[in-house]
Design goal:
Order of helices and strands: EHHHEHHHHHH
Strand content: under 5%
Number of helices: 9
CATH topology of the largest domain: Rna Polymerase Sigma Factor, Chain: A
Shape: globular
Distance between the termini: 53 Å
Strand order of the largest sheet: 1-2
Number of domains: 3
Radius of gyration: 18 Å
Number of strands: 2
Length: 195
């Protein structure tokens, strides 16, 4: 089977030994992306950590069939896979075939703050609290965006996925995606001003 290529250019392919570093560098942002996109219904059933690890495991298992021209191409693919995973898991739980009496309580979003802790590192306790409060404020505002705007904004601004790739993923034109991102950012700015 021929290797699937993503964002192939004239540049040489990434050294397979670099993937450990790429996963490590992208893991905090990936977890933050999953946390921002997960939604309350899915968060009640699956943890951010489990979903993030599942995405990484699936990408790792497919690395023999994939090649990437750059770190950015790898990052885009990783975040697009996370987006697909969230949609798939949400559909699975909405199917109604799950025995809710047997489901275990999953940690709340507040209990899944590891990506934030990693990002603030050795900051003072007051700076950690300020950062956590700001993160929660932004997170609440993001959840108020319409689904399509939220997905486009998170993929483009947090995951650094190109407009073209987002358009392919969402089945839209590049211009439509640019519009979603612009309207989403404008609405987000308005929501944050009100808080």
């Amino acid at each position: 089977m021929a290797a699937r290529e993503h964002d192939v250019t004239d540049t040489p392919q990434l050294d397979p030994g670099r993937y450990d570093d790429l996963f490590a560098r992208n893991l905090p942002a990936l977890a933050a992306y999953v946390q921002a996109r997960i939604g309350a219904a899915l968060a009640a059933r699956e943890s951010v950590s489990d979903l993030t690890q599942s995405v990484c495991r699936e990408v790792l298992s497919d690395l023999d069939e994939l090649s990437f021209a750059s770190d950015e191409a790898f990052r885009s693919f990783l975040f697009l896979q996370a987006s697909r995973k969230i949609v798939d898991r949400s559909r699975f739980h909405r199917m109604g075939k799950r025995d809710q009496a047997r489901e275990l309580r999953m940690p709340t979003v507040a209990e899944c703050r590891e990506p934030l802790r990693e990002l603030v590192g050795g900051a003072t306790p007051s700076r950690v609290v300020e950062a956590r409060e700001e993160f929660e404020r932004i997170e609440r505002a993001i959840t108020e965006l319409p689904d399509a705007q939220r997905e486009a904004v998170l993929l483009h601004r947090l995951a650094n996925v190109s407009y073209v790739q987002i358009a392919e993923r969402m089945g839209l034109t590049e211009a439509a995606v640019r519009g979603l991102v612009a309207r989403g950012l404008a609405r987000l700015a308005g929501l944050l001003r009100l808080r």
